[in-house]
């Protein structure tokens, strides 16, 4: 009996090892999965089925790709800074981004300011309100939002909302019923149902976007959560950043929303041009979308190019930092070339395992001349890149392999001096709440656990 089970398991193991060798193209990730499959009998196979398989050829992931048909776009070199034209052209040509001009951009630097602006935009909606969030959870913020959306629906406004099945797993039935009762059209993106969606549970919609009348769009790191406010159950609010974009870029956000809407099993609807849309003398914006269905890793391309194209400086803020070889090499190369490279990370994290993994990259970056700051006051959740006083990126993607390859993510690249200067000012304001690391102080930190860091680093290719 045991011999038969051993033979069956050996055949299953060989089958999955073959799948790893054919499907996983990254050598570190391939080796990591080989170790997991061989050292964790049965558990390794289950883990691979859940989080290891490649979905690129699955029909489910071919429903709609927002920027694969760009026949209506015109690439205008005169409206893109010449110093950053390579990035704009790359993302335009690899089917990762929509490109638009004459947008008005406003940086929103905390939760209250963000939601005040978002709720004001919703109050002014005349046709549609579309919301697409990784986390939607019960609380005071959701209560206010439901009341506001109910009022707009009574006025004849169409409201659609997408929430991720895993990120919003804790969203209670009462909140879902209240949203439906006021008339919100809801879509559960890849419902976290072990029986029906086991093979896709690892591929999450990490986007946070809102589009009003295809004319105003918001994106950044903030979810629909009370984590951004001081409440009786949350004494320490998160630090995060959003942007409000008014203009043609809102249509590119709308294309991404429609893609997610179809992916969640909903039906096609017509994207209408906004009424009374006037050209604004403002910013060029590229809306970058990527996910497990992408032909190219658009956000990885974005981050790599901004870092390697930097002429004076590049500043990065991210809550999760598992960069992979390409970004790690880019950061060290730029720093060693006398580019001012700075990295701001949270001291407080919502995942100790990811913090251990993050710490394993810092020693070599410090040795190469990268300046690293640990934000002390609260959990830093912003995802920002700022470079050369002329380009900035705000969105949902962290600097980690999950954001580059596994999650559905979205960033707004802003080619604009004013927005970049404001984000740069905010960066230096936040430095006041940071501890800057040196090589000696980092290696001597009392809170380091080198054994756990080494173990966590081994799992970085599959996190």
What key attributes describe this structure?
single chain, 463 residues, alpha/beta, Endonuclease, Chain A, 3 domains, two-stranded parallel sheet, 16 helices
Multimerization status: single chain
- Per DSSP E runs of 2 or more residues, the count of β-strands stands at 17
How many separate structural domains? 3
Give the amount of beta strand, in percent.
Answer: 15-25%
Name given to the CATH architecture of the largest domain:
2-Layer Sandwich
| Overall pLDDT score | 85
Beginning-to-end CA distance, first to last residue: 37 Å
Major sheet description: 15 strands, mixed
Number of helices: 16
CATH superfamily of the largest domain: Endonuclease Chain A
Structural class: alpha/beta
Q: Please mark out the parts with pLDDT under 50 across 5 or more consecutive residues, or reply none.
A: none
List the helices and strands and how they pair.
Elements lengths: L1 H22 L3 H13 L3 H10 L32 H9 L3 E12 L2 H13 L4 E6 L6 H15 L3 E7 L8 H9 L3 E5 L4 H4 L10 E5 L3 E5 L21 E5 L2 H15 L19 E8 L7 H12 L3 E5 L3 E2 L1 H13 L3 E7 L5 H17 L2 E5 L8 E4 L3 E5 L3 E2 H6 L2 E7 L1 H15 L2 E4 L1 H5 L6 H9 L5
Parallel strand pairs: 2-3, 3-4, 9-11, 10-15, 11-12
Antiparallel strand pairs: 1-7, 1-8, 2-5, 5-6, 6-7, 8-16, 9-13, 12-17, 13-14, 14-16
